[in-house]
Amino acid sequence: MSDTxxxxxxxxxxxxxxxxxxxxxxxxxxxxxxxxxxxVLLPELILHDYFCIQEQARHFDLAHELTTEPMRxxxxxAKERSIVLVVPYYERQASGIYYNSxxxxxxxxxxxxxYRKMHxxxxxxxxxxxxxxxxxxxxxxxxxxxxxxxxxxCWDQWYPEAARLTALRGCDVLLYPTAIGWDDEEAEQRTAxxxxxxxxxxxxxxxxxxxxxxxxxxxxxAAANRIGREGHLRFWGNSFIVGxxxxxxxxxKDDEDGVLLAEISRNRSEQxxxxxxxxxxxxxxxxxxxTRRWIGDxx
Length: 299
What we know:
The protein has 8 helices and 17 strands. A 6-stranded mixed sheet has the order 5-4-3-2-1-17. The chain has a 6-stranded mixed sheet with strand order 8-9-10-12-15-16, covered by helices on one side. The chain is globular, with a radius of gyration of 19 Å. Helices cover 29% and strands 28% of the residues. Helix 1 packs parallel to helix 2 and helix 4 runs parallel beside helix 6. The chain is of the alpha+beta class and 299 residues long.
């Protein structure tokens, strides 16, 4: 395995099951491969609209398995282009059991691994607890032809514990397929100036927390977000890739679809961890409180 590989994040609209959008998704994947990408990351739940803006039992019919036609087509595309493809999807495990998942197709089209979203939000406009069972895969590093991938999904990106435990599994990069944006209802409760400031704070916080995961773990981090309006949500794009000291290697705009490419170097992470030996200096003997919900009442 080479010291380096090229990673691409894709930014595009959701609901790729609309024929023209699926064609556009495949075109972007092919473009990434032609540009030299060996690992390609797609946004969260990319095959569907973000149906979690409402609670409707009929949306459970959207869930599917790896044997469905679009999933087989994406696996075939990974094989044809010799790329590793990270595909987030709405997974049906059994009747009444559904997950927000991501499958990793290896460069030969086989399944290298799967991750099920561990942290499930429940906010206005993001009613995911209604649809998704909390993930049961744990935090893992998925070995592929080109590198070891740590896959987490959207709401997971706010948790330093998830990033740390995944990094400790030995992955080369943390990958965050994402569907996040601004809520019109929040903006309507404020003046135009206040709404703009709030939206900028939220976007900055989203970028900052993920850059902090890169720094704290000496590892690359990539986020692939959706774009466009869906109901009262406006997905903010801004997909990016950062290096192991938090340096911005590339970032997209809020309204463009396309491909972002960066080189991932294991040696670069090695050097960052030697310079800032956070993993060495962790007081693992004193971290027992992390397994508790709250410890503020202890004397």
